[in-house]
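ok so for the tutorial part 2 we go from a plain amino acid sequence to predicted structure tokens. step 1 is just haveing the sequence, like this:
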Amino acid sequence: MKPHLNAAGRSYVALITGAAGQIGYAIATRLAEDGYRVVLVDRADAVHRCATQLKTAGHQAMGVEIDIADPQAVAGLPVQLGQWWDDLAVLINNAGISPKTQGAKRKVIDMPLDEWQQVLAVNLTGMFLVTRTCLPAIQRQGWGRIVMIASQAARTRTHVPGAHYQATKAGMVAFARVLAAEVAPYGVTVNSVAPGRIRTDMTAAVSDTVNGDLASATPAGRMGLPREVAAGVAYLVSPDAAYSTGSILDINGGSFMP
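step 2 — the prediction. this is what the tokens look like for a chain of 258 residues:
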């Protein structure tokens, strides 16, 4: 699938946060394969290796190592991207953390304030900072796509994530609905993806028994794969999804059916 091209005939730039993780890298790979120039953003230095792998495969990619919870670092994104900033049209807000203690969530009564604030800083405030910084560039294109990687935890009570994680993911979905109405006049859509249990390092933080039980309870009988999340994102980013905005795409193997 060829990406929407700008007036100069150049492929648009897609920026993906949390791109050193399995889901973020799968999304970056899929969008690169679809023809976008991709900017991989992560606080882990592995983001440079991920970008190099894409470039080695023949794609146009750039790695940017920043902490999205740092306002000054996020404000520097236009400088980091250089000329690519002028063609930014796609933003994938994927970065997120979900702390565990001995493989389990903390109950609210046991949750320290600093852990609560850390999760909000990355999952919600970081998303806001990146979105606010990118919006002027995206709106100037007259066409754009913003996708929030939320979670099934934003849709219903789940057993593994803590209250801070669930609160931030629900907040992302609510934020997306408001933003969708604000940017629609600029030809920009804003949608959310709500993955269920996906096989990643984050889900590996709990025991195999827990993951096995959750997979068995899913109608599909298994955990999802990062590339399956990336496929959903690719649709929402495509020109074919022009009439979808403010929506939520569930990718969960049937574990939640609203």
